[in-house]
Design brief:
This protein is of the alpha+beta class. The chain has 2 domains: about 60 residues, Winged helix-like DNA-binding domain superfamily/Winged helix DNA-binding domain (Arc Repressor Mutant, subunit A, Orthogonal Bundle), CATH 1.10.10; about 130 residues, no CATH class. The protein has 8 helices and 6 strands. A 4-stranded mixed beta sheet has the order 3-4-6-5. A two-stranded antiparallel ribbon has the order 1-2.
């Protein structure tokens, strides 16, 4: 297939089926080629800027792909949460290079997937903490805030020393939401949410 035919294929799939990402196997079937031949063709198309390699093994047009779409294409159980969501909604001022994706599955060596949007990090969490949003693959701000503290503590970090928080008085944490997390996370979230520093200042650990 010529480059223009691939552009038409990707555009048509997005318009008709809302599918923006494809595996090498899927594209090889479309081109009626072997995966080895398809890999060579994909390398050429990426160099030409016709398509983008969003993460290893996932290809699409060079625009219009979001982190939650990318996570779901790799793991249908995964949803984007934590610092990426908070930055997206303007609750922290730094856009993290790592995008936390909570899941019930284990990814082992493929847990980290680097790409143009950042590195997707698949985090296996307990059924108590796991709560995939009903209508999207991106957690709401309150859930993302709690998830940030949860995953940071698992890593031995404190997000208050990593990020500048703002607009926290706009968040509304329910008892049911907080009850999913360990007591230490509940206390940290409650403490920061009720004592927001002046906008533009960094909180201290």
């Amino acid at each position: 297939m010529k480059a223009i035919e691939w552009v038409r294929f990707f555009s048509d799939q997005r318009a008709r089926f809302r599918k923006s990402l494809f595996t090498v196997t899927e594209l090889a079937n479309v081109a009626d080629a072997s995966p080895a031949v398809m890999n060579v063709e994909l390398g050429r198309l990426v160099k030409q800027g016709v398509i983008c390699r969003w993460v290893p093994g996932r290809y699409g047009l060079p625009d219009g792909v979001t982190a939650d779409e990318l996570a779901a294409s790799i793991d249908s159980d995964a949803y984007v949460t934590g610092a990426h969501v908070l930055a997206y909604h303007g609750y922290i001022t730094q856009m993290p290079r790592e995008i936390d994706c909570f899941t019930r599955r284990r990814h082992n060596r493929s847990r980290k997937r680097p790409g143009p949007l950042g590195t997707l990090v698949f985090v296996t969490v307990s059924p108590r903490v796991y709560a995939a949003p009903a209508e999207s693959r991106m957690a709401g701000p309150e859930q993302a805030f709690c998830d940030l503290f949860y995953v940071s503590r698992r890593r031995g970090l404190d997000p208050r020393s990593l990020y500048t928080f703002r607009k926290l008085n706009q968040l509304a944490f329910t008892t049911n939401l907080l009850a999913r997390y360990p007591q230490t996370v509940q206390q940290a979230v409650a403490s920061l949410a009720t004592s927001e520093p002046p906008e533009g200042t960094r909180t201290e650990a």
